[in-house]
Amino acid sequence: MSRSDTGQGRGRRIVLWRHGQTAWNLERRFQGSTDIELTETGVGQARRSARLLASLKPDAIISSDLRRAAKTADELASITDHPVTRDSALRETYAGVWQGLTHEEIVERHGDEYAAWKRGEPVRRGGGELETEVADRAAPVVLRHADKLPDGGTLVVVSHGGTIRTTIGRLLGLEARHWESLGGLANCSWSVLGEGARGWRLLEHNAGTLPEPVLGDDD
């Protein structure tokens, strides 16, 4: 991305990359902070996407320490030879008793809570974290590593659907009630933020594949 594309900013980019497929994604189970492995398909998705992202010549890679994100990040690290900095602040939203439940079970058992969340109200889903609290822990980590980039540099952040959405919302300066308007990411798809004269802006969203269903968005 050229300097002319980003106004007077330093031309830095942040690529927020969701992990590959897990068994719980297929079952539409809310994973949250539960540490679930990638499926074989998920590993294949990570390898394919890593080859594409390597062409961006990233300067640094950071990742959630949960295995599904960490293994995804390792695929890019093996191509670029960059070390991966793992940080628990990039984990998915902790959702208490929702974790491990399918979408249908959540709606059946916690319907009022689910409906309030979908309306954009601040809800501790399952007694867990607020979305703003997820952004409070994740966004500063992303910005701290982005600040270390050279002009025109690229940071790859490997994380989870919900955490990526809240981080994007925070970096774009959107009100929290509007974060849900950012569509979900398919497994191993990514979003790209570019630095402009007035701050970060969304350049790409759910990129990397042809459109496909989003399985287990908040996980």
How is this fold's topology laid out?
Layout: E1 13-18, H1 23-26, H2 40-54, E2 60-63, H3 67-80, E3 84-86, H4 103-109, H5 111-118, H6 131-147, E4 154-159, H7 161-172, E5 190-196, E6 199-207
Parallel strand pairs: 1-4, 2-3, 2-4
Antiparallel strand pairs: 1-5, 5-6
Keywords summarizing the entry:
single chain; 219 residues; alpha/beta; 7 helices; globular; disordered N terminus
Would you give an account of this structure?
Helix content is 35%, strand content 16%. It is built from seven helices and six strands; from the N terminus they run βααβαβαααβαββ. The chain has helices at residues 23-26, 40-54, 67-80, 103-109, 111-118, 131-147, 161-172, and strands spanning 13-18, 60-63, 84-86, 154-159, 190-196, 199-207. It has a six-stranded mixed beta sheet, sandwiched between helices. Strand 2, helix 3 (67-80) and strand 3 form a beta-alpha-beta unit. The longest helix has 17 residues, at 131-147. The radius of gyration is 17 Å and the shape is globular. 42% of the residues are buried.
In short:
This protein is of the alpha/beta class. The chain has seven helices and six strands.
Shape type: globular
Task: Specify the number of helices.
Answer: 7
Task: Measure the end-to-end span.
Answer: 30 Å
Largest sheet: 6 strands, mixed
* Helical proportion, percent range: 25-40%
